[in-house]
UniProtKB/TrEMBL annotation:
Pfam family, one: HET
Organism: Alternaria tenuissima
Descriptive protein name: Heterokaryon incompatibility domain-containing protein
Source superkingdom: Eukaryota
Lineage, uppermost ranks: Eukaryota, Fungi, Dikarya, Ascomycota, Pezizomycotina
Domain Heterokaryon incompatibility positions: 202-343
InterPro entries in UniProt: HET (IPR010730)
Length: 669
């Protein structure tokens, strides 16, 4: 590949070498297309411009790069304006702008990659600004995921996972009713097997169905499938999943489209009720994370950029690093789907195939193909933690399978009536709701149904009480305190759940800032008796009377007794009480005026919190549906934050207590 005079003279990034000016961005763009009449473009310039053009940061801002100079420095690939002030916002670097410098040796007759530090594509406007950055344990991702090295890595991940305390063992379990049996011979066709309760280990597939006309199991095809399933007729994602399973030495795989009789309503209902257990008991879930539909396949070449050989003698090249960011999972096609979210919560270990690399997820770790095993990180997310969820899934399944029971002896419990309630469970549920609520469902009325499996697992022995359309009776006040995530929520075109349930709106919600389990334990009894709500009765009209975790019908409601205050008085409290510039609270309507506006807020009801302990407090904002009958609906949430100074906080609390609070019994719809 031809190089321009600049790229052919580059030296590998080194502090001694210093900056190497590549030239104005517009010039790089021209050279990438052609180096002159009858000549091809420069491969190096094409690499640099393509990285910028396809990056998350600059893909929508390409015109802004004009009249900027691109410089290769020891600290990174810098985009510099000729003049102007420092713009710190441009110092932000996304995962897809990371590069590593690689060298080659010919001693063994083949290319040997050696890691020697890393450079970054940084966006800077000031010549003197410098930063330090190093990356350890990086490995180069092969463009071909079918290579044996990729499967060796997966085997290594599986072996490490078996040593994890929080991860379930690889013991044989009762197989699903039907599985695809995979022959050892890659040329032999798989077949559908009726298991009759046999034990074994199996893989399960998570995928987007996508296009219509997908090959599925029907009553008429059942005998044929039991003899053989033609690989030529299967969509690419199915054949790839079978190949992955075979190369990992698994004999069985469960694929919903091929293992449930799609034109048999009775079979579908029976198997749908078992799917949560099927995912939870699987040894491994293969996730077609990047595939838009089942025709796209899983084992596709990875989109990881690599430059041509650069410099004098073409002695090194640059390789794009895909950093260990959850962005690759959370922005993928499959991760936008509601049903897939539940599958991810239930499966004990997941092998994600993204566009750039494989990612392993289990209860203890995230492993990234672009990093060595030493680069593994413990699972952590702002919204959802698999380590928190998995222990309860495993515990529930252990009561109905051969898996040894998992127990978290450190779980905090609080006696409520005659039941012990794991407070970690309610926090885990709220994390799951935060992850799930913004996901897309092709059938919007599946909102509660598509997370029913997780709800059943968390409440397998009734630890959380009655299930009220996504809210738990044992912690009703905390459950009602959900907030919209960022964007405005919307009302679905038809009824899905009551106004007080997060399932009754379209859009992401979260429980960030809601009281922690420690705060619940420390709640003052006197304060709770005065201000906290009490569930008097509930009436859930189930769409399916045999599934308490499924959809509910219009007319479902709860009867709640709580401390209420007219909104006019509450609003005056906010306006009148000021401590300097202190921010004392926030009022958030679920839907803003002009977009699915539910109505004016008439009054509020205290939920969870304790100002006596200088903690925050959440209040439910309500409007009357029928004031005479005391029927109300939710329109928003308010959060009160007491002042930092103790003296001010005490005065603030006294003012709050002396407001015209009145305990009322209301019907919330």
């Amino acid at each position: 590949m031809e190089l321009c005079s600049v790229c052919s003279q580059l030296v590998a990034s080194d502090p001694v070498v210093g900056d190497q000016i590549l030239g104005p961005y517009d010039e790089l763009l021209l050279k990438s297309q052609s180096l002159g009449p009858g000549r091809a473009g420069c491969g190096g310039c094409e690499f640099f411009s393509t990285i910028l053009q396809s990056s998350k940061t600059w893909s929508d801002r390409i015109p802004e790069l004009s009249d900027h100079t691109i410089t290769l420095s020891p600290d990174g690939l810098l985009v510099r304006a000729l003049s102007g002030p420092i713009d710190l916002l441009r110092e932000q670097v996304d995962y897809d702008l990371e590069l590593t410098t690689c060298f080659t040796e010919e001693k063994r007759g083949r290319c040997v990659v050696m890691r020697l530090g890393a450079i970054r594509l940084l966006i800077r406007d000031h010549l003197d600004y410098q930063s330090n950055n190093t990356f350890l344990g990086m490995t180069l991702v092969s463009p071909n995921p079918r290579e044996s090295s990729c499967f060796n890595l997966i085997d290594d991940w599986i072996n490490q996972c078996t040593e994890h305390v929080k991860c379930s063992p690889l013991n044989p379990v009762a197989l699903p009713k039907r599985v695809i049996e995979i022959p050892i011979d890659p040329l032999a066709p798989p077949r559908l097997r009726i298991t009759n309760g046999a034990l074994g280990r199996y893989v399960i597939l998570s995928h987007c169905w996508g296009v219509k006309g997908l090959m599925t199991l029907t009553n008429s095809l059942l005998p044929q499938y039991q003899e053989a399933i033609s690989l030529e007729l299967l969509p690419n994602s199915f054949t790839d999943a079978i190949e992955i399973s075979r190369r990992l030495c698994f004999r069985y795989i469960w694929i919903d489209a091929l293992c449930i009789i799609q034109d048999n309503a009775e079979d579908w209902d029976q198997e749908a009720g078992k799917m949560a257990s099927y995912y939870g008991l699987s040894t491994l879930m293969i996730s077609a994370t990047a595939a838009e539909d089942s025709s796209r396949g899983i084992l596709n070449r990875r989109d990881v950029s690599r430059s041509p050989m650069l410099g004098k003698g073409k002695g090194f090249y640059l390789h794009q690093i895909v950093l260990r960011h959850s962005f690759q999972l959370d922005s993928s096609i499959l991760s936008t789907r509601g049903w897939a979210a539940q599958e991810r919560m239930l499966a004990p270990r997941i092998l994600h195939y993204t566009r750039q690399q494989m990612i392993w997820e289990c209860a203890e770790c995230l492993f990234y193909e672009a990093f060595s095993s030493a680069g593994a990180i413990k699972t952590w997310h702002d919204v959802y933690s698999k380590s928190a969820c998995q222990q309860f899934v495993t515990e529930a399944l252990s009561q109905e399978s051969t898996i040894p029971r998992y127990q978290d002896h450190n779980a905090k419990t609080l006696e409520c009536g005659s039941k012990d309630i794991s407070l970690d469970r309610i926090e885990t549920w709220h994390q799951c709701v935060g992850m799930y609520s913004s996901r897309f469902l092709s059938v919007p009325t599946d909102k509660l149904h598509a997370i029913a499996g997780v709800a059943r697992m968390l409440n397998h022995s009734g630890q959380l009480g009655e299930y009220l359309a996504g809210i738990w009776s044992t912690h009703l006040a905390v459950g009602l305190a959900w907030k919209k995530e960022s964007r405005n929520l919307a009302l679905p075109p038809f009824y899905i759940a009551p106004s007080w349930s997060w399932a009754g709106v379209e859009g992401g919600v979260d429980y960030k800032g809601v009281w922690s389990s420690t705060a619940i334990v420390d709640t003052n009894e006197s304060w709770a008796k005065t201000f906290h709500p009490k569930l008097i009765d509930q009436h859930m009209i189930l769409q399916n009377e045999h599934n308490v975790y499924g959809a509910v019908l219009e007319g479902s409601h709860i009867i709640v007794e709580g401390a209420c205050l007219r909104y006019a008085d509450f609003d005056q409290f906010f306006e009148a009480y000021e401590v300097g510039d202190h921010y004392v609270g926030q009022i958030t309507l679920d839907m803003e005026d002009g977009q699915d506006f539910l109505g004016t807020c008439d009054f509020c009801m205290c939920l969870e919190g304790n100002l006596d302990c200088h903690e925050s407090m959440d209040l439910l904002l309500l409007s009357w549906v029928d004031q005479e009958a005391r029927v109300a609906q939710r329109v928003g949430i308010a959060t009160i934050l007491p002042p930092w100074q103790e003296e001010d906080a005490e005065q603030f609390t006294r003012t709050f207590k002396t407001a015209s609070w009145e305990r009322r019994t209301l019907k919330l719809v």
